[in-house]
Design a protein that fits this description.
CATH architecture of the largest domain: 3-Layer(aba) Sandwich
Number of strands: 13
Order of helices and strands: EEEEEEEEHEHHEHEHHEEHH
CATH class of the largest domain: Alpha Beta
Number of domains: 3
Number of helices: 8
Shape: globular
Strand content: 15-25%
Largest sheet: 6 strands, mixed
Structural class: alpha/beta
Distance between the termini: 49 Å
Radius of gyration: 21 Å
CATH superfamily of the largest domain: P-loop containing nucleotide triphosphate hydrolases
């Protein structure tokens, strides 16, 4: 209990105007926002007031970060107070290098650790091509996990637990990458439970467009979804957050002059530019342009790959145009 009769809680699901809030003792109930605007997101710590068998969110406590995307039309918030973002892609279907880079930039901008999971390692040739394509990302020291979620489930579960233990991880990725398989592997039964809650709210059609928090079942096995740890526990507070798929990932909230700072392969070379306000597109004496690799297939770890420089150039032009 806090001052003025308000209670502490954690937003664990967002169904439009409805939120599912979890109390410190593991009880979950539906809450509504105060007023017309729905400001809360999954991962928010909130103060709420009981009202019969539901509640009202009175205050959202300060966030340490917020992972979101923004285009010309709207801002889409995924989750708050994250330790890391796992961007899950697959050897097939082919993934977008631009969308991967955009998600990584959004994470860097909020000081959230990004990880990349490459699924379907059992598809030998497609996986080898994709793994080769990810060389620049491995050289940037991003954690890149080879996965085969359907074939080597127990091995992958243990590997994922190593990087997720004690952390809150947002799982992001396109349709077909294996997000549902991953969640069922780490939190058995949770997806079915979420579907039941959504239907109870008459929001069944929104199940795949909502963001949901799951406690990870570190012990493995199947059965009831794992419950939250005790309030004062410092062990086992491992959680993952499922997010809706997306076709586009807007970065309108990123200033083009800051773009290079959020790309680890480009950032070190900015110091070598002749001009302090270099755009890294055409200026003489540009340290970034000078560092672009001449070999598209095997970039030097101290150089910038041709593909990554192309992504930077296109993003800079896109973000600059939208500011006029």
């Amino acid at each position: 209990m806090t001052q003025a009769g308000l209670l502490k809680g954690l937003i664990v699901a967002n169904y439009g105007r409805h939120f599912l809030v979890e109390t410190p003792d593991g009880r979950r109930l539906i809450c509504h926002s105060r007023g017309k605007k729905s400001q809360g997101v999954v991962g928010d710590r909130v103060l709420w007031k009981a009202s019969q068998d539901e509640g009202t969110i009175e205050k959202i406590e300060d966030r340490r970060n917020l992972f979101y995307r923004q285009d010309e039309v709207r801002t889409k918030s995924f989750a708050a107070n994250l330790d890391q973002v796992l961007i899950l892609i697959a050897a097939e279907p082919e993934f977008s290098s631009s969308q991967l880079s955009r998600a990584l930039i959004a994470a860097e901008a909020q000081h959230i650790t990004p990880l990349i999971g490459l699924n379907k390692s059992d598809l030998v040739e497609p996986f080898e091509r994709a793994w080769q394509w990810l060389i620049p990302y491995r050289q940037m020291k991003y954690g890149v996990l080879p996965l085969s979620l359907k074939r080597s489930a127990e091995v992958d579960r243990l590997e994922l637990l190593k990087v997720m233990e004690g952390k809150t991880t947002l799982v992001l990725g396109p349709s077909g990458a294996g997000k549902s398989t991953l969640i069922n592997l780490l939190a058995p039964g949770s997806l079915a439970q979420t579907g039941e809650i959504s239907l109870a709210l008459n929001a069944g059609k929104h199940t795949t467009t909502s963001t949901t928090w799951y406690w990870v079942n570190s012990a493995g096995g199947h059965g009831d979804p794992p419950r939250p740890p005790p309030l004062n526990s410092t062990v086992g507070k491992t959680a993952l957050i499922d997010s809706p798929g997306f076709q586009e990932f807007g970065l309108n909230h990123i200033d083009p002059s800051q773009l290079a700072a959020y790309m680890p392969d480009i950032r070190p070379h900015v110091a070598n530019c002749k001009f302090y306000n270099c755009s890294h597109l055409h200026e003489p004496g540009c340290g970034v342009i000078a560092a672009v690799s001449k070999d598209e297939n095997a970039p030097n770890p101290h150089q910038i790959s041709v593909n990554r420089y192309r992504i930077y150039s296109e993003l800079f032009a896109e973000l600059s145009q939208r500011r006029f």
